[in-house]
Design brief:
The chain contains 10 helices and 9 strands. By secondary structure, the protein is α/β, with parallel strands linked by helices. It has a domain of 138 residues: Aldolase class I (TIM Barrel, Alpha-Beta Barrel). Strands 5-4-3-2-1-9 form a 6-stranded parallel β-sheet, with helices on both faces. Strands 6-7-8 form a 3-stranded parallel β-sheet. It is globular, with a radius of gyration of 16 Å.
């Protein structure tokens, strides 16, 4: 899978909804009802971060939920890519990018949303054919103002910013021409998951979905 093909697939994922939930799942029992709640609320693209022991099993469980499009976040190595693909992930997200990681995603045919945070990193990925990129950590790296500025000299690239984004500041990002969607964890608070309050998560998802008609 070429970078151009990967970007086309990543574009399709990013266009599903204005917010991609960034999920850290500690309890496997939460995976399926969480996915169902988010999809019901209008957020079908789900990024399960590979930060917990049950993350891969969570991807497997969520991949069975009708209407969900499940991806793996925090991809760092070739082994991560291979494991994510085997678990059923249909896209990948990385905080940055290395040649080894890019090669692995091409090898295992996993569409990647590669991370970039400087003009040089954005340009390097663009040179390889990645026109859809993750901007991380967004708020700590200049936020919407930075992305607005970089959109003038590099209009070919569109972004999914993540990191410090909330319901309050998400509209600042989504108003920009070069922003496809944002990634955020606020739609799946740990307290609601621990309490099994899936209706509350569906409400948060619907609120997030409404950020863009």
């Amino acid at each position: 899978m070429t970078p151009t093909e990967q970007s086309a697939r990543a574009l399709a994922v990013c266009q599903l909804a204005p917010v991609v939930p960034v999920l850290v799942i500690d309890d496997l029992a939460h995976a399926k009802p969480l996915a169902e709640a988010l999809v019901k609320g209008g957020l079908p693209a789900l990024e399960v971060t590979l930060r917990t022991p049950c993350a891969l099993d969570a991807i497997r469980a969520m991949a069975e939920v009708p209407g969900g499009v499940v991806g793996a976040g925090t991809l760092l190595t070739r082994a991560d890519v291979k494991a994510a693909k085997e678990a059923g992930a249909t896209f990948g997200v990385s905080p940055g990018s290395t040649d080894a990681l890019l090669d692995a995603c091409a090898e295992f045919e996993l569409p990647l949303l590669p991370g970039a945070v400087t003009a040089s990193e954005v340009m390097r990925l663009l040179e390889k054919g990645y026109t859809v990129q993750k901007f991380f950590p967004a708020e700590q790296s200049g936020g919407a103002a930075f992305l607005k500025s970089i959109g003038s000299p590099i209009p070919q690239v569109r972004f999914c910013p993540t990191g410090g984004i909330s319901l309050k500041n998400a509209p600042d990002y989504l108003a920009l021409k070069n922003i496809l969607c944002v990634g955020g964890s606020w739609v799946a608070p740990k307290e609601a998951m621990a309490a099994g309050n899936w209706d509350a998560i569906t409400t948060l998802a619907a609120e997030a979905r409404a950020l863009r008609g």
